[in-house]
Write a structure and sequence with these properties.
By secondary structure, this protein is α/β, with parallel strands linked by helices. It contains 6 helices and 4 strands, in the order E-H-E-E-H-E-H-H-H-H. Strand 1, helix 1 and strand 2 form a beta-alpha-beta unit. The chain is elongated, with a radius of gyration of 17 Å. The mean pLDDT is 94.
């Protein structure tokens, strides 16, 4: 199985690549920094250079292009920005590979503490008392 993991600067990407690599999967990194330590892990089979994930439209298009040109069985988006880019392009990405990504509305809700709190209140979900 061939797996693409994003966001090499995040500790979670190193843990993900090491864990999947130890389990025998071919893991690749999608990141803007060719010098990131994750790219040089013995469990990382290769690096696909991306724009910085702060440049949402360029990043998303590069990710889609990479998925179109290379057959990956699974995409593991790590950073918040990558998850947001994937959610914005959910249908296209799901047509190219397997990924667990919620709809954009859910990502936007989860990214905003106040909106999440108000959602919980509206849906009778128990939460700690807070003040705005």
């Amino acid at each position: 199985m061939k797996i693409l993991v994003t966001s090499g600067a995040w500790q979670a990407s190193l843990a993900c690549i090491q864990s999947l690599g130890r389990a025998g999967y071919d893991t690749y990194l999608f990141d803007h920094d060719p010098k990131t330590a994750v790219a040089h892990s013995k469990y990382c089979r290769g690096l696909f250079i991306s724009p910085n994930d702060q440049e949402q439209s360029l990043y998303a298009q590069c990710l889609i292009d990479t998925l179109q040109k290379n057959r990956f069985d699974v995409l593991v988006p790590i950073s918040d920005q990558c998850v947001f880019a994937c959610a914005q392009n959910r249908d296209t990405i799901l047509s190219l590979t397997n990924v667990v990504i919620p709809p954009l509305e859910t990502v936007l809700l989860a990214a905003d503490k106040k909106k999440t709190y108000l959602y919980a209140l509206d849906h009778n979900i128990p939460i700690p008392k807070t003040y705005f």
